[in-house]
Amino acid sequence: xxxxxxxxxxxxxxxxxxxxxxxxxxxxxxxxxxxxxxxxxxxxxxxxxxxxxxxxxxxxxxxxxxxxxxxxxxxxxxxxxxxxxxxxxxxxxxxxxxxxxxxxxxxxxxxxxxxxxxxxxxxxxxxxxxxxxxxxxxxxxxxxxxxxxxxxxxxxxxxxxxxxxxxxxxxxxxxxxxxxxxxxxxxxxxxxxxxxxxxxxxxxxxxxxxxxxxxxxxxxxxxxxxxxxxxxxxxxxxxxxxxxxxxxxxxxxxxxxxxxxxxxxxxxxxxxxxxxxxxxxxxxxxxxxxxxxxxxxxxxxxxxxxxxxxxxxxxxxxxxxxxxxxxxxxxxxxxxxxxxxxxxxxxxxxxxxxxxxxxxxxxxxxxxxxxxxxxxxxxxxxxxxxxxxx
Length: 390
Description:
4-stranded mixed sheet; mainly alpha
């Protein structure tokens, strides 16, 4: 094993061993697991929960009870002896609405608002009642007319077959995007903080006596990247098991493919952004100044997660989404989300990998130069232009 590779391996091993044994790693992993399980639980609740609307019927309106429950299964009918009793129950919150009057002239009393679905059902019942009366007046059979009307449908011919897994794909894509964002920002910031800590304590001067600056930075990035990958793998395994157990995300080719691409893009994204973070950390000597220099990097990542949530949710196949996902700084967050929902074409994936790889090579060269020229300068903040010129 040649000396540069051995140096990088030793630095990476040191970072990996130190961080995996730290209390902060255990706490952050536990917090993220709680958040992930909470998300799965929320999805399970949203897919199984049905809110019931309690509707009181009085007088002639009691005759629409069967029609009301048949057209809206989430309605619970309560019969009240008088309209005054129904109003009292609405005021007390025992029921959501009181329906009185005749079937053709329904009167609804509510506390403040009426559920839109219930309102549409009541409107339809009243309209059908009026229609039946008009048909009877001209000697037509209302049942025959309704049967003829019900038989008329628009012929829908979709260009793309309906995907029964569309919801699961979207959920998986957004979860992957969020986890990648959290992992890259968390461990990228640790790279910057580690550089500042070693610089302010003068430990870096001892390390650079035996290790070249570029090898030290690369080893730190690789070590922390492996720590992040370990945490991400734990979250992915637990998330897959919880999704399978709850039925919200079956373990299938979709889930495993999403996991595989998530790992690939995490490695690329972390290597890309960690070099930015490491170079930024070399520009300052105090931890208090770290946030100011990593701000632009955080902004780029925030744009990536916002774009992923917005574009993938609204138009994953759109031209704008396609173009934005090919931008190397945004690809690590946006592309795996598009892959998860099945919106990325093979040529797009290949092109984004090539562009991101080229960007990583450029950023690694620039980042190593900035790190080399700034890490030994203690005191005032080093200007980026000065670090690049030396």
